[in-house]
Amino acid sequence: MRKLMLAMLAATAVGAGVTAGSAPAAAYDYPWCAQGRGFGIPGDCSYQSYAQCMASASGRNLYCNINPRAAFGQQQPRRGRVHRDYYYD
């Protein structure tokens, strides 16, 4: 029984090593989101076009809206000199 458990553990480790070499699926924010009851904000953002979104939303009491993450993007930190008001007497 112990040898069987060790063999299964070794096989799992080998399998994990094989899958770790391949790249995972990258998350991508598509520009259209299906929103409505049952979906949080921003919703199901897996649509490349408005037509795809509307076809999926049809009959499900959903509507389509622009993905705010894709529309506005991540705000970049401000670069440059930081202004501090120091007064020396």
Terminus-to-terminus distance: 82 Å
Strand order of the biggest β-sheet: 2-1-3
Mean pLDDT: 74
Number of strands: 3
Q: What's the helix count?
A: 3
Overall shape: it is flat
Percent helix: 25-40%
In percent terms, what proportion of residues is strand? 15-25%
Oligomer classification: single chain
Classify the secondary structure makeup into a structural class.
Answer: alpha+beta
**What is the helix/strand order?**
HEEHEH
User: How large is the radius of gyration?
Assistant: 25 Å
Low-confidence stretches: 16-20
Largest sheet, described in full?
3 strands, antiparallel
Overview of the molecule:
The chain is an alpha+beta fold and 89 residues long. The chain has a domain of 37 residues. The protein is 37% helix and 16% strand. It contains 3 helices and 3 strands; from the N terminus they run H-E-E-H-E-H. The longest helix is centred in the first third of the chain and has 20 residues. The protein starts with a helix and ends in a 17-residue tail after the last helix. About 6% of the residues have low confidence.
